Amino acid sequence: MADLVLQVNHVDVVYDDNAGFFRKKPGFHAVKDVSFSIEQGEIMGLVGESGCGKSTLSKAILGMQPYTGEILHYTKRPQMVFQDPYGSLNPAKTVGWIVEEPLRAYGKYDARERKRRVADMLDRVGLGSQYANRRPRELSGGQRQRVGIAVALIQRPRFIIADEPVSALDVTIQAQILELLLELHRDLSLSYLFISHDLNVIYQICDRVMVMKSGSIIESGSVEEVFDHPKEDYTKKLLAAF
Amino acid sequence: MTVKKSHNNFIIGCCITGVMLLLILLGAFWTPYDAEAMDTAAKMQAPSFTHILGTDNFGRDIFSRVLEGAGTTLFIAVNAVCAGLFFGILIGAFTGWYGGWIDEVLMRIADVITAFPSILLALVLISLLGSGKSNIILALSLLFIPSFARVVRSEYAKQKELDYVRNAKLMGVGTPRIMFVHILPNVWPVLLSSIAIGFNNAVLAEAAMSYVGIGVLLPDASLGRMLSESQAFFFSAPWYALSAGLTIVLLVLGVGLISDGLGEWDNA
Question: Which residues pair with A28 in a beta bridge?
Fold first, then answer.
């Protein structure tokens, strides 16, 4: 078996409804007994309609959401590419500042080295260092998502969670960003957990795919397996729509 | 991409405020006459080339006194707003970020403070503390804390849910840095209009308190104090009341126009 980057064992997430001081409602069970693992260099797709628990699961994996069960990370500092390239970049700061901030937080490099790495990374995501002095509002959606990817990659993580990274973009820009993600995947041997509701996107990019419905993973397997021979009715319906 | 829009309010506001600030700055170093010097030979003179705003009942040069008084008023307003802003941002940032019972308690206290008319509360505080410049500043800044804290708090509660904040947490950025380096710059635009309103309230409150005689102590000139002294001579020396009153109006108008203009800018 290849090296794992992530192992998720029997994870449950229940949202407490703090409706009142005395009234305790039963919580909303957003993620139900989910188990899976992701191997080194693998792109794992997670598909399902909105509200099925995809994002909650990703938050739990990143430690931003309390959960029960076991989540084992075999890499340091997984990072995230967000869906909305408008909200994920600080509007008050320049692109250079935003991309440099993870390095400042990391605290290992001096200012010169940080600047060099930021310029490298901006080149790598296809923007070029001349964008360092721009502010997010001066960029297009695709350019912002490139900045978002640069931010996620600058700490050199081995594992990235991409939460609907192209859903907010035009189709042509989608293709460019997917191409960039694949290129980075090859060059830096990254693993992705790629969350999307768009089967088309999943089909283009993923090795394996999991289908999630109301908190549970109902089907999983290689992309060919699931797309060509779906077992569950829900998956068939999804595929019929696609 | 930019829509052509008139920024008249902003420009006029800047002009008025700029001229006022220049004059006040000038008044801090140089006035045509000593503001306290009495000249019994020249009492209650109408504006002329020797005294451009005339003289008062003691023969003091009104222009010099307006410069001094406006300086005092500005000093009080700026300090009160800065102190209120400092604590308002601190409290607002913490309550907005952490929420929970601390938030509830502090915001209910803020509700209690804002439930009273601010002038009334200031009067109570002044009667407890005694009058004088520093006590007025203290009283006004205490009154301003809730209004600033409320604006800052609601902005923090909104901003902390945004992805850029989640992203910063994910990178391992420390909480104080997220609060004051990442989020605070995004709160300023909203705070600016509150600052302008707070400044204007401070100018008016200082004038009102000095007018009723519990504000600035006697040797200091202040616009409110001049206004109250001038009313006895309103018919014999209207220029006295007018110069003090118009100065207050111009100070408040200039800053008000700037804040209006900033609002237009945001909407553009």
Answer: A15
pLDDT in tens, A138-184: 999 899 999 999 999 998 899 999 988 888 888 888 999 999 999 99
Split chain B (268 residues) into runs of 10 and give each run's mean pLDDT. Answer: 67 92 88 78 78 81 88 92 95 92 90 84 85 86 91 93 89 91 91 90 87 77 85 86 91 90 68
Q: Which residues contact B84 (CB under 8 A, 6 or more apart)?
A: B140, B141, B142, B143, B144, B145, B147, B148, B198
Whole-angstrom distance, CA of residue B79 vs CA of residue B82? 5
B46-78 burial code (b ≥16 CB/10 A, e <16): eeeeebebbbbeebbbbbbbbbbbbbbbbbbbe
- Mention every residue, 6+ apart, whose C-beta is less than 8 A from residue A45: A194, A195, A196, A202, A205, A206, A208, A209, A210, A223
Option in B167, B172, B174 nearest A80 (CB): B167
* Sequence-separated (6 or more) residues with CB below 8 Å from residue B230: B56, B237, B240, B241, B244
Look up residue A84 and give its DSSP letter: -
Write the DSSP assignment of B231-247 as a string of letters: GGGTTT-HHHHHHHHHH
d(Cα B6, Cα A241) in Å, to the nearest integer?
Answer: 51
Reading the block at residue A148, the tokens are 């978002």
Question: CA B144 to CA B260: how far, in whole Å?
Answer: 20
Token pair listed for A99: 């991309």
Mutate to test the interface with B, among A101, A144, A159 (most CBs of B within 10 A): A101
Gap from A86 CA to chain B (nearest CA, Å): 9
User: What's the rounded Cα separation, in Å, for the pair B135 and B215?
Assistant: 9
Q: A163 pairs with which residues across the strands? A: A195
List the single residue in B with minimal CA-CA distance to A90. B164
ipTM of the complex: 0.80
Q: State the pTM of this model.
A: 0.80
**Are the beta carbons of A64 and B166 separated by less than 8 Å?**
yes
Contact B163 A155 (CB under 8 A): no
Separation of alpha carbons A191 and B103, rounded Å: 41
